[in-house]
Structures are given as structure tokens and as C-alpha cells.
User: Which sequence fits this backbone?
């Protein structure tokens, strides 16, 4: 892969792009929401950390991409406004939500996944693939050329979605 | 000098002393020269710092430890999977190349190096700065460095978009190993250190 | 007759190092424990002559386990083996009844010296 075509996403962030770029992230309890327009070969990834932005008290300076309920709408808006993508042409794939540390008692990964599914449903965006849960990290490479996502869970062979 | 600048300088000073002690202890443990270098003490954006981690394919074994007490910190020691085998040999005083597969003893080696380094740091806090701190038992995990680093900073990243991170890199001289050590001050600890050092 | 040792540490690699050092000095390692709870069970079961005890362990730490063992047997000989080089912890252990302490990382000679001294 040409390093120049790689877009990398950190936690609480979202990025969009077009073919032939590849969007990469690495996940633990966070969920990556990948949206793609097959026709235009344009897509984006949100790396969300928490389900509900109400924990931030709706501060005007809060980082919206951290939360499913604000980050997913912002990802969609980015695709619409910067790339002229129509919501109706988007398909979703979601990954992550693992429970990596034993010391953490809450199941944040599950909550994140549930929130992402609910919000995408509200936009009528179909989730055409998902790989979530477990106790190991995920490495996700989202090809904007094909829409396919290579997902490698630590210790396992990569799989294509 | 503003209070923020003084606290920053204080954290730098404490970090330098803690890292220096860790270098000495590591050299003694592995019976060869080990140099731990303080790479940075800086306030970093959570998205940018994790983006940098996520770019690589690094697979590591890491020890997660809490430093509990008057100025709580989190501590992370990570080493590449292949290098963990060498660490095991050095720890046991065996010829390098004796340990050929990752097993319970390798995990234990990383666990104990993490324990000894974090204890050395807490000893510096206690002896030199009269700040009481004790390490928790380590949790050892193999995974992508990006994944583990995110989980390491997660509690703080949920509350804030920027975190103060103390990053050290070390080399074990004859063996050319690359290991990383991260310290993360938790809420209130910089102020507690400031009070203890008289810089606040 | 060789002295019987119980090694207590949550790191198997430390127990292995201690075992290698002390077996070469004709000590017999009769048991190992991973935490303070196991330490007390093994002590009751094996009745060792000497115990090496880590401090930072899950389930129950070494200071608590030391106290519990001394309640079972006031003559128990326990040497703390720890990376915590802090006066309050070490003094607490000694005041409770530990016979000595070894600071990690340790030299073989220091382990031998401390265990021989504890064995009398």
C-alpha cells in the first residue's frame, strides 16, 4: 500500500476520503463506524469512544467525534457537505467493542455497539457487515477503492468484510 | 513564572529523577547497561497521539500498573513480542536465543520488569519527594500497541481531550532492544506533586 | 537435612530465580504460591522452615499474609522479597515479625546471605 494513500484515525476522531485511499485505525473498546458510497467510491470512518454525549454536559467545546450520538451525524454531514454524498447511498460496517482489560468492569464496547446500531437505524443506513466483541484488539483497513475492509483481530488471521 | 509553567517544570524534574532511577534498576536487573531516556513530557491531543500509535502494526506485550497514593499515576511498560523473548533470557541470565516461544515465563518476565520499574518510580516519589505511592499488581496483556495505549489513556480521554503523557524509550545496550514506558498522571496528582515539592 | 522453603510471589519468573539460587545452596523448595491467600494455605499444608514473601500481589498482599502466617505460627521465618524500597512498608513488615527483607532486583549473594541468616 502506498503510504501516501493511507489515512489514519485516532480515538475520538473521524476522517473521510475517496479512492484510492485506505483509512486505518486500531481499536479496543471503541467502535469504528465505516460508511461507504459504492458508486462514488467515497467513505469515512468514525472512531467513537462512548455512546452518549450527555456525559459531556453538552459543552459547546466538547469533542463530538468521541460519542456515537454526535459523531455519527457529524460523519454523515461531512460526507454530505464535503463530498456530495447522499445518505441513501451509504452502507455501514462496524468493528471493535472489545473488552481488553480485565480491571475494567463496565462493558463499554457493548454499549458503544448498541448505540451505533441504534443511530444508524435512525438514518436508515444498513449495516452490511459487523465484527465486534471479544478480548483482543482490532486493526481495521478500509479501502475506499473497493469498500472492502480488512479486519485483523490480534492473534488471528485477517478477514475481509 | 506562571503556575502552569512551574508545574510543568516540576513534572519534568520528577520524571527525570524517576527515569534515572529506573535506568539504574533496569541495568542491575538485566546485568547489562540500560539507558532509559525521557522522550517527552507533554500535553497531547488524544486523537493525535493515538493516530500516531495506530499507524504502525506493532504487536507488543505490555504490563499495566496503577501507582496509587497521594499522587496517583498510571504506568505502562511495553515491549515488542520478539524482544520479550530476549528480556526473558536476560532476566534469567540465560544465553540470548534460549527462549524461542512466548509462554507464561515470558509474560512473567514482562510483568516483573514492569513491577520493578514502577516500584523504582514509586520509591523515588516516596524517598525524594515524600509523596506516598505504591504500585498495584501488574496486568500483562499481548495485543496491538495502538489498542493497549488507547485502553491505557481511556479513563482520562473520556474526561478530557488532552492528556499529559510522560514517554520514555529505552535501549538495553548489548541487545538492542526497544522498549517503551509511559506514565500518566491522574486527576489531582500534578497538584499534589506541586504541593509536595513546594512548587505550588 | 535440607531446610524447606515456601516461595511466594505473583511472578513465576521470580520464584524460578529464587528456586535456582537456593536449591544450589541445598535448600528444598517444597511449595510455591501466587498470592497471599495461597501463601497461607500452603504454609498450613507444608509447614516450611522458611518463607520468601513478595509484597505487591493480587488477592492478598504480602504484609497481610505475613501477619496471618505469624498468627498461625509465631515462630514462622519470613523474608520479604520486594521491589518496594520504602521505609514505611519495610518497617511495617519488620515490626510485624518479618526476619529480613531483600530488595529487587537482587543479587544471588544477597538472597543467599538473607536466607542463610534467617535459617540460623
Assistant:
Amino acid at each position: 500500500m502506498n503510504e501516501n494513500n493511507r489515512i489514519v484515525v485516532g480515538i475520538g476522531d473521524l476522517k473521510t476520503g475517496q479512492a484510492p485511499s485506505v483509512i486505518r485505525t486500531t481499536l479496543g473498546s471503541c467502535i469504528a463506524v465505516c460508511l461507504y458510497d459504492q458508486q462514488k467510491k467515497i467513505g469515512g470512518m468514525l472512531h467513537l469512544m462512548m455512546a452518549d454525549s450527555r456525559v459531556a454536559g453538552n459543552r459547546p467545546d466538547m469533542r463530538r467525534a468521541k460519542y456515537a450520538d454526535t459523531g455519527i451525524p457529524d460523519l454523515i454531514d461531512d460526507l454530505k457537505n464535503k463530498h456530495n454524498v447522499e445518505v441513501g447511498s451509504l452502507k455501514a460496517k462496524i468493528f471493535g467493542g472489545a473488552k481488553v482489560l480485565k480491571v475494567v468492569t463496565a462493558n463499554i464496547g457493548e454499549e458503544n455497539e448498541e448505540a451505533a446500531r441504534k443511530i444508524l437505524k435512525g438514518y436508515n443506513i444498513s449495516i452490511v457487515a459487523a465484527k465486534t466483541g471479544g478480548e483482543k484488539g482490532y486493526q481495521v483497513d478500509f479501502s475506499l477503492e473497493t469498500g472492502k475492509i480488512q479486519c485483523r483481530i490480534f492473534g488471528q488471521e485477517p478477514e475481509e468484510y | 513564572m506562571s503556575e502552569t509553567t512551574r508545574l510543568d517544570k516540576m513534572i519534568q524534574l520528577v520524571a527525570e529523577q524517576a527515569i534515572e532511577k529506573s535506568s539504574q534498576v533496569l541495568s542491575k536487573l538485566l546485568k547489562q547497561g540500560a539507558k532509559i531516556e525521557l522522550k517527552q513530557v507533554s500535553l497531547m491531543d488524544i486523537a493525535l497521539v493515538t493516530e500516531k500509535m495506530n499507524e504502525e502494526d506493532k504487536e507488543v506485550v505490555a504490563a499495566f500498573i496503577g501507582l496509587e497514593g497521594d499522587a496517583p499515576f498510571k504506568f505502562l511498560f511495553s515491549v515488542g513480542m520478539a524482544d520479550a523473548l530476549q528480556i526473558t533470557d536476560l532476566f534469567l541470565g540465560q544465553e540470548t536465543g534460549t527462549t524461542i516461544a512466548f509462554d507464561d515465563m515470558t509474560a512473567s518476565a514482562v510483568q516483573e520488569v514492569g513491577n520493578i520499574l514502577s516500584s523504582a518510580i514509586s520509591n523515588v516519589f516516596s524517598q525524594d519527594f515524600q509523596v506516598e505511592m505504591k504500585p498495584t499488581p501488574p496486568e500483562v496483556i499481548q495485543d496491538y500497541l495502538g489498542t493497549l495505549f488507547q485502553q491505557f489513556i481511556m479513563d482520562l480521554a473520556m474526561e478530557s481531550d488532552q492528556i499529559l503523557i510522560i514517554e520514555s524509550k529505552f535501549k538495553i545496550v548489548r541487545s538492542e532492544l526497544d522498549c517503551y514506558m509511559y506514565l500518566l498522571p491522574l486527576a489531582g496528582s500534578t497538584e499534589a506533586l506541586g504541593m509536595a515539592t513546594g512548587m505550588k | 537435612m535440607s531446610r524447606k522453603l515456601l516461595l511466594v510471589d505473583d511472578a513465576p519468573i521470580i520464584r524460578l530465580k529464587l528456586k535456582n539460587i537456593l536449591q544450589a545452596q541445598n535448600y528444598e523448595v517444597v511449595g510455591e504460591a501466587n498470592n497471599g491467600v495461597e501463601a497461607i494455605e500452603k504454609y498450613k499444608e507444608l509447614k516450611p522452615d522458611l518463607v520468601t514473601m513478595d509484597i505487591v500481589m493480587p488477592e492478598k498482599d504480602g504484609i497481610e499474609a505475613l501477619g496471618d502466617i505469624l498468627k498461625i505460627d509465631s515462630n514462622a521465618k519470613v523474608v520479604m522479597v520486594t521491589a518496594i524500597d520504602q521505609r514505611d512498608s519495610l518497617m511495617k513488615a519488620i515490626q510485624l515479625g518479618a526476619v529480613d527483607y531483600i530488595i529487587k532486583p537482587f543479587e544471588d549473594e544477597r538472597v543467599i546471605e538473607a536466607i542463610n541468616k534467617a535459617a540460623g
Summary: Chain C has five helices and five strands.
